[in-house]
Write a structure and sequence with these properties.
Layout: E1 11-13, H1 19-29, H2 33-37, E2 39-43, H3 45-53, E3 58-64, H4 71-78, E4 84-88, H5 90-97, E5 105-110, E6 123-126, H6 132-144, E7 149-153, H7 162-168, E8 176-181, H8 183-189, E9 193-197, E10 203-204, E11 214-218, H9 227-232, E12 235-238, H10 250-266
Parallel strand pairs: 1-4, 3-4, 6-7, 6-11, 7-8, 9-11, 9-12, 10-12
Antiparallel strand pairs: 2-5, 3-5
């Protein structure tokens, strides 16, 4: 642990005209910025602490004037000496955070490089899942279910945008995430049983043997999986629902499927 005496003195920023504020605001608001710049904004005490716990490279720490009085934030700052620290007025910090009542600390982190090795075990492939909350929730569920590889196709919400990071609650840092991937090519290279989740006319989820590695395909919130991906999968599976129910939210469906596999493997 770095000695508190080495903690860098925060630089106060109070103007929207400040170039640093403008750059951070763009990083927070432009969904293309994280991958283009190779850095992301992790907002909140839990996420910042997770970054340090998982050994994620932190480029800068951002703190609000009121946030620096928070005991947990003060403790984090005292243990992270040598990292450039910026102090913002509460109003400017709220603009960067995008949260109505932010906790008062965020970190600019280096996005881990795309994994180069092939996928050999369980994996989740997302086809145009556009809602940031859904993508983050699926990442969190995948990590909790022991799945390491998540592949996002074109049209998905950016994995490293602030909203997805918040919804993932630190799950990102234990996953190998690929973005903007050609899912058909990825599917062809995976070794596990490929399973397309469809709203109807698939095999009953609970009748499928999931004790082997599985590559799960989840589709867009409205349109579902593309026809090409559904046809390329080795199995089509449907979650049985009550008669009057049309479908499940994609994040909920992912949780049901992944933890059915966990259940079967624990029997």
């Amino acid at each position: 642990m770095t000695h508190p005496d080495l903690m860098s003195t925060p630089r106060l920023i109070t103007s929207r005209a400040n170039p640093t504020f403008k750059a951070l605001s763009a990083l927070a608001s432009d969904p293309r910025a994280p991958r283009c710049e190779g850095r992301a904004l992790a907002d909140g005490i839990h996420l910042v602490a997770s970054c340090f716990a998982q050994g994620i490279a932190v480029q800068q720490l951002l703190v609000s004037e009121s946030g620096q009085q928070h005991p947990q934030i003060a403790a984090l700052l005292a243990s992270t000496g040598g990292i450039d620290c910026l102090l913002f007025s509460d109003a400017l910090f709220r603009e960067i955070s995008g949260v109505a009542t932010p906790t008062g600390i965020a970190a600019v982190i280096t996005i881990p490089p795309l994994p180069a090795d092939e996928i050999t075990g369980d994996a989740v492939l997302l086809d145009a899942v556009q809602d940031a909350g859904n993508v983050g929730a699926i990442l969190r569920t995948a990590a909790a279910a022991g799945v390491r590889d998540v592949v996002l196709g074109t049209g998905c919400a950016g994995a490293w945008t602030p909203r997805v990071l918040r919804a993932g609650q630190g799950a990102h840092f234990g996953l190998r995430i690929r973005e903007q991937a050609d899912l058909l090519t990825t599917l062809d290279q995976c070794r596990g049983l490929s399973i397309a989740t469809v709203a109807r006319e698939g095999t009953n989820l609970y009748a499928l043997d999931l004790r082997q590695p599985a590559v799960w395909l989840f589709g867009n919130e409205g349109a579902g999986l593309s026809a090409g991906l559904a046809a390329a999968a080795q199995r089509r599976v449907t979650i049985p629902l009550a008669a009057a129910t049309e479908s499940l939210n994609v994040a909920a469906a992912a949780a049901v499927c992944l933890f059915e596999a966990v259940r079967q493997r624990q029997k």
